[in-house]
């Protein structure tokens, strides 16, 4: 379907080579919108904890495309009748583009400004963009179809499954890639074996029963990566500061503060007036540049926060089994009395509030299930069969973390009551 | 010597863990100046060719420190009398800080503005900086000593050897790290074996003769990495555009052009008036932000170049065995007549002009030699012993590359003479 | 303590280099008894399932020694007061020699002849052997001490812990090594991190609490390796045939059958009269040679079994949720009527009968516990803290396997009743 | 062409999975003759130097098959017209079976008994064997065709090229596999890239010019593996002892010596009367068993040699730049006078006498060339283009090694003249 005269390859540390055979895919990669993903890190601020984790969403998106391509190739080679061959290009495009709408430091900026990257992805795919032009050449309704796959509303669940499901190309790539770049080897999974075990069946992607242990291993890797990498308290600390910066800058902007540095499209961001063209100008280079410039602003809250973020003077934390509101109020009150700023100098974090998904076996929504196909062609949800998976399902660590600026607390120490001091191990 | 109460580690994909045992090293890593290296990529624009190569000089600097630490540990464990134990901390500091003065897209910016990162490293180390404060606590002349090691003028060559010589910690780390992040496996060397083979001897670091093959392999890896990665023509293309942007922006600035976007310390850069504080504000986030903003400037040359760089619409190239000035003049003339801009739309590149070093065995300067120590305690320069090394020494590929904007050339095609068209395979 | 003039190294794919610093260790490796371990495979018949798994107990023993050496080095470097420095050499010797008594196809031969490799290890260590001579040079009671450590009766539990406990050097090496040689990546564990987390504490080896996830990952890897590799039904099939060969040969020998091939020390083996010198002549080369020769014997049962084993014509199997004795009796009866040999042509296997250990958290025996040390210097057994570990503990797969010769069953098919045929999916 | 109903896979550490799609290949793997390769080590006695190198020719043969399969798949996917599709199965069979005739400790036994493994391979393929039965089912002349490919006389050079040429599947697999199992990383090559660069062209397999550096790297890896692994002097020492054992045993047999242990087919081996059935009984288990048993023989030369080999008490060596016959005669004379056995206690070795092939660029025989195909569809022999390759071509290390039993020499020391003592550094 519009094949390239010669296959193109990208050298990739995770998949060795990424193979591009369709001219449409090649052209999509070369659009302005897709190239922008080079300036958005895959793991946000994690590079402040794991210095190797500087890889971009560009790399990840190519990886998701490549895994999807391999799955489809195998479906076609095996001649499985349940695979709708005509959906190949659509699936590949959706796989490649599924993260197109991510903003800089995605999770934090979304939380701070109530945005959603999936919405933005769909606005870019269907808006006035180079990507849209290329997709429209396939068919006028093709951009909408891509958008529907990404929104999980496309009417063939098997296509949606490949791009977003508990065992999709997205998750497989990020586990492998994040493990590779952080150097944490918990994410290493036997992707070849998993791919061999996938089968299109009755309009869905399922796993042959003999692949159960490989899936267990994949889910355990994910579990470990969440606790070791994605929820790492140092990363959380940097995300908290990031959100505080956004909050403060927005407050100041709304108050008419005369910023020393202000550049498009930051005003639109603060005014909630971003359109697609403005949104596409947002990248992590801009955010970092703004933060470095703002570290010289007169507003001391903003300049201090920016200094913390840029030079990695992060908040410290203490871990608590439980937290009650009274205690929090008391801390805030004492912080205020001691000359600290209770609005910014204390943040409470509970990891399960996090915007990452944890696999919940037994979920009734069939899109969120992993189904095993046994030799009698019976389907069973994996947690019915695997004790391991069942055991992970209910697990969460109920630890609260209190984040605070250690340097300021140390100065305020004499003004704090003994009970509060004890909490912070002073 | 001022040890930490508990060893600190960084998780690193290349060395697994980086171990910090001295409080001085720990504090240096946490300075503003060292943290800035997170925003300078190790391989400049190579990420446009190898999308995985997004790693920073921060990672590399930690790696150089770690290799140096391991070498010294081994020297100490083996009790070699020729190792001056009192130089341990100095050597570690110099290893950690040796790249501190790198600017954004280092090789290109140095060429465009006639700067030198080693000078800047020494200015930062000896200037009014956090790094200087910490080093000065060791001894008032300690910053100068670190600076001297980096300048290769320190009076103990063995210390200089570890940080800069043909077989130093710097080169060993970058080969391994660049191979890891690009995914190109040519750079894989048996570093454990090389480290085991190093010995301090008569005031220098030499290699035991039984390590000859390991050194051959290391030099071949370097040779391969140069041709496969560092001199890659696509990377060269992006570097050319980068330099053109710097050139154009400086011209415009000097002509009083009213930039839509201009921020500190760019004016100082254009006026050659950077001081240490201004220099430290330069990073790749700033350069990328400027370029993205400039892609909307009215000056068409600048906006086009910035668009090319940011959205990776790079120049194409043709390879030629030789190039003569007459031909170049003719091309430029025809380009001009066809409405192209001969100043910007043609660049000639010859890889051996590149600012990378290639090992030249037989070099008379003893600092640039690799010496083998045989069982009779005789020293021999490696190219006397190894045919392989001797054979690499004279090798260079004499291919010229002509870079040009393909889109513009295609439009101008009818205005070009057949002989010129043939050169560009039109 | 009797150091070598220069450290010796072995190149090892798993640990990169194995470092020998003591002359005692070097001499032990070069004994006849230790070299014999080159002819005993680490994974017995697993090479018939995973063709790469041809590695020997020699390699594994070096690996266990190396891990132990690294742990002790770290204990010494950290200056932990709870590590008894004077036990270093003893611990290293016990680590190196702990598998010295393994026989050919160890688990099967032990089961067939009611032997125990640990007993043999101690008999070799304390008997008239080269190993004993070298150990005795350290101190007259040194061989007994080594023997006591291996028997887990040595009076310093911390020494025993390093060599045999749920998180010992033995298990860490075999997980890594078996994963490497089979190519199954489930066994990959972050050994550097685990080693960093170990601490001698109150006479035991414990794990710092921050290493909990690394221990979880290690236990999951073990769990996966058990089900994917060690209990693999094809390997079980070959072990069953192996035991049948031993059984048949012993029967024949006791009946005075005139073997075409019989060589020392097989008669002693069949007569239960092995002494240390005879035992040391047993290796896998001898067993394989006997089996190949016996494949030409007149006794058809023996020759068929040997042919099966040597040329990998293994038994097939069917999986059953449960098995009752009546059914088994019925199968045997019908097999007999159909001209098959019910004694040999049917074997029932239930994996949890297997001679491998699975970690059982909550075990009261403190030697079998993994203890976590938290910041308040409190010890807690890991299953109290980790949901994952608790969840694995009760897991076993209750599947029975019926093994049988497919070729013979296919010939007998018409003589079997429909209900029995159904069991074998005929 | 007779495809399996479901693809079978073997887990392989080097290629991850080996895929079997044809029923013929599957059945060939399961023959007695092919299974015998499990008992022949790929690297002969190298396991005495590199303890990890215990891998078999069975593994290697599967690997050669798999690489060949991948090359052919790629040829077919790319639709290259120069690939003769009808030769697929023939090529795969020849790739799988090319080493079928290897005997135990192949290089040494061939030298000792003037045998040739390629001849044996062809005798097995065309003789009365299970392999021959299966091949004959394809076509009556199919076994002869397979034999012709292995003998390099088949009339389509492209088929021969894939199985034996300087850049064939055999060499690619053994470099990767031997590197993996020894742990020496010099053999690591980018096989995916090399495979991508191969092209069938005018009846041969050639390499696209852009793959030149990958080929250089492959040839350098080979060069390094030869010197680091295949020619390792400790391995040579064990090979020398092995040949001496064969020599002594044959002498004794011919003299009618009453061996305590003698078993089929050793008599046929000593009498040069091996037929195919007898040859197939030879394996390394048998040789090791014989050697262990012979270490108890009364003949002291044989028993000592066998003890040396089995318990790794190898000969030591000294390195000499040159050797003259007079000196050798003098050493032998003095050895004799000192009570040593000059026939066995001195061996001179010169590595380039070794039975391994080194790539010789510029070889006129076109089967031994590596040809590059440039963009103008011109073929050039690689050494014309690559300086590196040209430089390796003439390289050999002209060192002689004198091997001797150190223990005996030390006892004889007082009887040797000073000049001879000096040679052996006594």
TrEMBL record, chains A, B, C, D:
Domain named HD: residues: 57-175
InterPro entries with a match to the protein in the record: dGTPase-like (IPR050135), HD/PDEase_dom (IPR003607), HD_assoc_2 (IPR045509), HD_domain (IPR006674)
Protein known as: HD domain-containing protein
Organism: Paenibacillus cineris
Encoding gene (name): ywfO
């Amino acid at each position: 379907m519009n094949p390239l005269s010669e296959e193109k390859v990208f050298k990739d540390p995770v998949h060795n080579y990424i193979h591009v055979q369709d001219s449409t895919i090649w052209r999509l990669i070369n659009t302005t919108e897709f190239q922008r993903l080079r300036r958005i890190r895959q793991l946000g601020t994690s590079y402040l904890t794991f210095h190797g984790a500087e890889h971009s969403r560009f790399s990840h998106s190519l990886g998701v495309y490549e895994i999807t391509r391999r799955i489809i190739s195998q479906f076609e080679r095996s001649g499985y009748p349940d695979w709708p061959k005509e959906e190949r290009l659509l699936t590949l495009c959706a796989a490649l583009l599924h993260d197109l709408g991510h903003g800089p430091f995605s999770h934090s900026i979304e939380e701070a400004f109530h945005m959603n990257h999936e919405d933005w992805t769909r606005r870019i795919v269907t808006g006035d963009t180079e990507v849209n032009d290329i997709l429209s050449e396939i068919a006028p309704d093709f951009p909408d179809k891509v958008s529907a796959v990404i929104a999980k509303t496309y009417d063939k669940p098997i296509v949606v499954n490949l791009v977003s499901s508990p065992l999709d190309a997205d998750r497989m790539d990020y586990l492998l890639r994040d493990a590779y770049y952080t150097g944490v080897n918990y994410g290493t999974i036997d992707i070849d074996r998993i791919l061999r075990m996938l089968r299109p069946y009755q309009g869905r992607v399922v796993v042959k029963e003999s692949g159960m242990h490989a899936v267990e291993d994949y889910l355990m890797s994910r579990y470990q990566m969440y606790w070791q990498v994605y929820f790492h308290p140092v990363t959380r600390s940097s995300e908290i500061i990031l959100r505080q910066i956004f909050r403060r800058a927005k407050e100041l902007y709304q108050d008419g503060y005369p910023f020393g540095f202000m550049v498009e499209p930051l005003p639109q961001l603060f005014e909630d007036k971003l359109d697609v063209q403005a949104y596409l100008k947002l990248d992590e280079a801009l955010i970092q540049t703004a933060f470095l410039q703002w570290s010289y602003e007169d507003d001391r809250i903003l300049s201090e926060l920016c200094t913390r973020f840029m030079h990695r003077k992060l908040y410290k934390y203490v871990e608590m089994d439980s937290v009650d509101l009274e205690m929090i109020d008391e801390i805030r009150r004492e912080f205020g009395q001691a000359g600290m700023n209770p609005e910014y100098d204390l943040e409470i974090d509970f990891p399960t509030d996090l915007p990452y998904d944890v696999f919940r076996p037994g979920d009734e929504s069939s899109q969120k299930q992993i189904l095993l196909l046994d030799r009698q062609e019976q389907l069973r949800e994996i947690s019915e069969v695997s004790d391991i998976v069942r055991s992970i399902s209910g697990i969460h660590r109920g630890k609260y973390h209190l984040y605070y600026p250690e340097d300021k607390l140390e100065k305020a120490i004499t003004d704090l009551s003994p009970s509060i001091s004890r909490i912070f191990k002073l």
